[in-house]
Structure formats: structure tokens, C-alpha cells
Amino acid sequence: GAVVSQHPSWVICKSGTSVKIECRSLDFQATTMFWYRQFPKQSLMLMATSNEGSKATYEQGVEKDKFLINHASLTLSTLTVTSAHPEDSSFYICSAISVRTEAFFGQGTRLTVV
Amino acid sequence: DAKTTQPTSMDCAEGRAANLPCNHSTISGNEYVYWYRQIHSQGPQYIIHGLKNNETNEMASLIITEDRKSSTLILPHATLRDTAVYYCIVRETGNQFYFGTGTSLTVIP
């Protein structure tokens, strides 16, 4: 299957700082990328949908000024958690799709805010 | 929002077939049925998808009822590595993937 890579796999940051997570599609061009958040023992919650070259569409209840998404190319999308707080600690996962119908997921980034 | 209902958990003996059901009674004609699984602390892995015909690949088989209101994912010979949370998702091409609560499958030695 197609490969989607996330970086970093885990990160610890201090409260009030910003953290950037990268999502790359390694062997295909992703027309659309999705960002999810997953808390322990819960399912994946869709945060936003991003299309290359346009603004991301955020799900209800997700603050767009706090979770900045940039999708500058067909192979790269970034999620920046701004002014992170302990309640932002979570597992963040991206996925990417192309002309095929199925989505492929990154391995996830575990963010811990201390 | 998720439009599927799955049992919370299931057990399966190693080497036996695992049959995971999914109800999607409000599925529309353009929506596909997708199955993904997530092993602890990893990103979801694509398994299979279908529209109305049964599908089979190297990982699993997908049986969709004629009225498309339910489906079953079949892992023909479950191994310990198949222990994971399995998600059934209905989605129209071009739309988002919304995850429900999934089924936690435990394969027992």
C-alpha cells in the first residue's frame, strides 16, 4: 500500500510553546489530507480536512487559530499546535488520499505537553 | 459523523475465522463500506472496501448484504497479530472518513 510518513513520532514540549507535525505522502500525490486526534481508549476524531493550495476546513469545535494547518504541496501537510497546553496532549494522526478512494494513514505523533 | 454500529469487542481463537459485523442501515447509494484496523499506538491500516459486491484481497473478505444495510469483515485464519481495533466506515468518494467506536478484536492462543 501507499506510504504516509509523520514526523516526529513523539514530542514533549513545554506549556505555551508551539509544536509542528509534518505529514508526507512518500509515493503518491495527495490531493487531500486529513488530520485526526485520538485520546486514550477513544476513537479517532477528525479535526480538519486540507486540500493542496487552499485553506483547511475544520470540524465543528476545532479551533482553527490553535491548530494551524498548511498544505503547501501535494506531498506535504503540516499541523502546528500553537500555545500548547496539557489538555492538547494526544495522539495526532494524518491521512492522505489521491485519486484512489482509500485513505492511507501515518504512524501518528504522540504529543505530551508538560 | 459515524454512520455505523459495531460490537464493542470480540474474541476469536487463533487459526479460526474472525467474522466482524457492521450495521450501516442509513447507507446511501453512493457510499462505500471501508474497513480499517488500528493496532495499539499506530496509525490505522487499510484493509478492504466495497460498494455492493463482495470483495476479497490478501488480508480479508468483505461480505455486503444485498440491501447494503450491513456487512461482515472476515479474517479467514486469525493470528495473534490480528489483535486490533477494527473500524467500519461508510463514505462517499470525496468526503471525509469519520471513525466510530470500532470493535476490539482479541485473538486468543
In short:
The complex is a heterodimer of chains A (114) and B (109). Chain A is built from no helices and eleven strands.
Question: Could you walk me through the main structural features you see in this protein, from its secondary elements to its overall organization?
Answer:
The complex is a heterodimer of chains A (114) and B (109). Chain A has 114 residues and is mainly β. In chain A, 0% of the residues lie in helices and 52% in strands. In chain A, the strands form two sheets. In chain A, strands 2, 4, 5, 6, 9, 10 and 11 form a seven-stranded mixed sheet that branches. Chain A starts with a strand and ends with a strand. Chain B is mainly beta. In chain B, 0% of the residues lie in helices and 48% in strands. At the A-B interface, strand 5, strand 9 and strand 10 of A face strand 3 and strand 4 of B.
The helix content of chain B is under 10%
Global mean pLDDT of chain A: 93
Q: Would you report the number of β strands of chain B?
A: 9
Tell me the quaternary state. Answer: heterodimer
Q: How big a fraction of the residues of chain B is strand?
A: over 45%
- Count of distinct strands of chain A: 11
Shape of chain B: globular
Assign the structural class of chain B, choosing from mainly alpha, mainly beta, alpha/beta, alpha+beta, or little secondary structure.
mainly beta
**N- to C-terminal distance of chain A:** 36 Å
Give the helices and strands, then pairings.
The complex is a heterodimer of chains A (114) and B (109).
Chain A: E1 4-7, E2 10-13, E3 19-25, E4 32-38, E5 45-51, E6 57-58, E7 67-73, E8 76-81, E9 90-97, E10 104-105, E11 109-113
Parallel strand pairs in A: 2-11
Antiparallel strand pairs in A: 1-3, 3-8, 4-5, 4-9, 5-6, 7-8, 9-10, 9-11
Chain B: E1 9-13, E2 18-23, E3 31-38, E4 45-50, E5 55-56, E6 61-64, E7 70-75, E8 84-92, E9 103-108
Parallel strand pairs in B: 1-9
Antiparallel strand pairs in B: 2-7, 3-4, 3-8, 5-6, 6-7, 8-9
